[in-house]
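Morning!

As promised:
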Amino acid sequence: MMKLYYGPGACSFVPHVTLEVIKAATGEDFEAQAVKLHKGEQKTPEYLAMNPLGLVPVLVEDGKPLTQIVAICDYLERRFPQAGLLPTDPWLRAQAMSTFAWMNNTVHPTFTHIYRPANFASGEAAQADVRQVGLDVFRSHLERIQGMAQKAAPFLFGDTPSFVDAYALVFLRWGGLVGIDPAGLPAYKAYVERLAAAPAVAAAIAREGIALETYKPK
Ligand SMILES: N[C@@H](CCC(=O)N[C@@H](CS)C(=O)NCC(=O)O)C(=O)O
């Protein structure tokens, strides 16, 4: 059975939703192993032997680990084409992958600047600046996703929630954690609520034990 190592609320939610969509469509079950990131469980020797980068997610298939969200989701989508995770038309599929790549290589690392500014600057003032610039840029990325959400029918690439949608949900939650009020992004918020109500997405949310609303007014 495939096994996913995930951190509750982390980016590993993206393959987690993917596995739930596959399970609903094909009956293929998976095991989900929570990794407590705040306790550093991703840095133990056993974990590092599996993923030397010390990060979630990891998908284990036949005892072999696969890392990186884009590779994991691409693998799952090709292995289970009947799950309808992406459009079958090559051009439309490439459009979905283009958005997915942007989320993974741009939006996600922008958030890291807000969450872990010490990874990017050493002095306190410099770190505050990294954080502030990261916040402004992250907000602009969320606005771009809101533009996509306005055209979602009902999801970004059709009727089935995909890993691209799951990433969009993660970013809105993360925005809330750093003070971005989702009420200021109404079309994005409505789309994420619709997505969270889809049974496969709801199942991943329930297993991770996470709340959709993370924003706390000051
Ligand atoms: N490029 C990686 C990013 C993975 C990543 O950033 N994982 C974060 C959670 S969102 C993590 O494991 N952080 C734990 C740590 O930094 O110790 C991927 O696509 O899988």
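The helical segments are 13-26, 45-50, 69-79, 90-115, 124-150, 163-177, 186-197, 199-208.

Hope this helps with the figure draft.
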